[in-house]
Amino acid sequence: MHRLLRAFLDATEGRFPPVDGGVTHVDPPGRVHGVVAFTGHTYVMAPAPIWPSDDIDVPPPDGYGGSHDPRYVSWLARDAAEIGVLDAVLFARGTGAGSASLGRTDRHDDHHRVDHARSIRDDVRVYGDERGFVTLSTGLVGRTEFGVEADPAGHDLGWGRSLVADALGLIPDGEPVFAAVSPGNARSMRAFLAVGFTPIGSEQLWVV
């Protein structure tokens, strides 16, 4: 098991890294690299070296938010074609109850959210109905990941919230599932929180 995956799973059980301002370097298992921050501790998943030399005008990383400094992330991801946005990391547990309405679909294969999921994740499955769709996949360091896209017609009808709630039935009972949500996307954040997702950290990813 990748060391960062163990940290994610431990966090779902309330066991977090030490609040010491430290930085833990872990090797990326594939093309996706990134910075993942918990309270007071950061994991940098990139090839070494991860510390800028003294002759480079880039602040060094730290576990108190400094590892998300745009200057540091830009230096660390200098070989990436594109750097992803800063997201909050949330988790919930599947219910294993199934879903009467969400079925596998290929209707959304040309949607940018599906395309993005397939560019950084494996085994992407799309489920949908008239409310929109969700993606389930194997994502960063092997964790189960979740994405949702509600039809704009239902933005004031709770469709996004109900999609998230129904999709938890597609996950085995008790299995943790993770979502990355932009902090500024308050509508999405509220939907995830309302159905029991819990924030555990933040991350910024890129593909090389």
Automatic annotation (TrEMBL):
InterPro entries: Acyl_CoA_acyltransferase. This is N-acetyltransferase domain-containing protein. It comes from Ilumatobacter fluminis.
